[in-house]
Amino acid sequence: NDIEKGTYPHYMLKEMYEQPGVVRKISQAYEDQKGELTLDVAICKALNEADRLYIIAAGTSYHAGLIGKQYIEKIAGIPVEVHISSEFGYNMPLLSEKPLFLFITQSGETADSRQVLVKVKALGHPTITLTNVAGSTLSREADYTLLLHAGPEIAVASTKAYTAQVAVLAIVAYVAAKEQGKTVDFDLKNELAIAANAIQTIMDSKEEMEQIAHEFLEVTRNAFFIGRNLDFYVSLEGALKVKEISYIQAEGFAGGELKHGTIALIEEGTPVFALATQQAVSLNIRGNVKEVVARGANPCIISMEGLAEVGDRFVLPKVHALLTPLVAVIPLQLISYYAALHRDCDVDKPRNLAKSVTVE
Ligand code: G6P
After folding, report:
1. pLDDT tens-digit profile of 69-106?
2. Suppose 356 and one of 19, 107, 149, 325 were both cysteines; which one would form an S-S bond, judging by CB atoms 3.0 to 4.6 Å apart?
3. Could you list the active site residues?
4. Per DSSP, what are the bridge partners of residue 53?
5. 307-339, pLDDT tens digit by residue?
6. CB 93, CB 47: distance < 8 Å
7. H or E segment and range at residue 290
8. What is the rounded distance in angstroms from the CA atom of residue 359 to the CA atom of residue 86?
9. What is the DSSP letter of 31?
10. For 253-296, how does the pLDDT look when each residue is reduced to its tens digit (9 = 90+)?
11. Atom number, ligand 1, closest to the C-alpha of residue 157
12. How far is the CA of 140 from the centre of ligand 1 (A)?
């Protein structure tokens, strides 16, 4: 049964374990009879007609949206803006001539996102909702729905919905590019299959993540997550996971930005998690690690096969450069899970948080 914990001590652990299966399921759910990745004809048409995509989301879904922007701009060449839903209402940017709105919401019920949907619909703009819940409010009210196929997510801290969002956004970008006759030099289905296996491999190393959580997060007051390019967005999500369930003050930063102020917070022993999965900025992020180490930080470098160096704490299996968020987030989810356990926190039901927030 989808909503039973089974033998797992927590829904969060169960849901993290489901991630390889979710990525595989998405790949199948979005293929046509010939086995090619595809989207609904009406959605393809909407994407083709838009001159700019506006992604609207909150929380973890916003973090997935930041990655979606990279995919859709880099693969499909469609300009994308990503906005926090609660800000959009009174801070609406100048819209392009033919905007298309994409709401990313696991629950499909987030009031902040819905108020934007109501507003832009009133302006007559086309809307798509990317959600895990068919029949949810935002799904019913938008013109089109894209489903996450992640199965019910019960733990308040989102894990499998995030990886599902990233995977579907990659498919959206890929199909949009093909629709426009752009050449795409990789086979996304194949790359998603490789990523699913890699997620499985990382899940199988969960004892290592427990050890890292023990060493770095058991007694600390704060923690930093840094990365560049796609790793930056994953750092934001990793920090959010740690904050949500272990109540450690954690912040994600672009590797190059840390020195412009925040580095003042680095003290003897401050944990700094650094992601190094991006070849083009590999040297730069390692430079940033040296900067914080020189100020006493305790670094935990998570790199990727092919970019690993001696002393890296964990090396992720190699995946396509654009799909690194699918795998880099897994150790961070696991580390936050174990940090919460070690600190006696209620993993599935953290204080002050709700699974879906239906007030603005
Ligand atoms: C709440 C949850 C978060 C979630 C956010 C957006 O704050 O606690 O985990 O990311 O809402 O939810 P949505 O359902 O719109 O993705």
Report:
1. 999 999 999 999 999 999 998 899 999 999 999 999 99
2. 107
3. 355
4. 80, 100
5. 999 999 999 999 999 999 999 999 999 999 999
6. no
7. helix 282-294
8. 11
9. B
10. 999 999 999 999 999 999 999 999 999 999 999 999 999 999 99
11. 9
12. 18
CA 88 to chain centre: 20
Residue with tokens 């930093």: 224
What are 360's two structure tokens?
Answer: 């603005």
3-state secondary structure of 274: strand
Which letter, b or e, does each residue of 202-219 get, where b requires 16 or more Cβ atoms within 10 Å of its Cβ? bbebbeebbebbeebbee
Residue with tokens 């374990």: 17
**DSSP track, 61-108:** HHHHHHHHHHHIIIII---EEEEEHHHHTTSPPPP-SSEEEEEEESSS
Q: How confident is the model at residue 3 (pLDDT cuts 50, 70, 90)?
A: confident
Query: Of all protein residues, whose CA lies closest to atom 15 belonging to ligand 1?
Result: 105
Q: Which of 120, 142, 121 is nearest to 131 (CA)?
A: 142
318 and 304 Cβ atoms separated by less than 8 Å: yes
Atom of ligand 1 nearest to the CA of 61: 16
In tens, the pLDDT along 129-144 reads 999 999 999 999 999 9
Q: Can you state the angle between helices 160-179 and 59-71, rounded to 10 degrees? A: 30
- Helix, strand or coil, per DSSP, at residue 242: helix
Per-residue tokens: 339: 């940090």
Contact 185, 19 (CB under 8 A): no
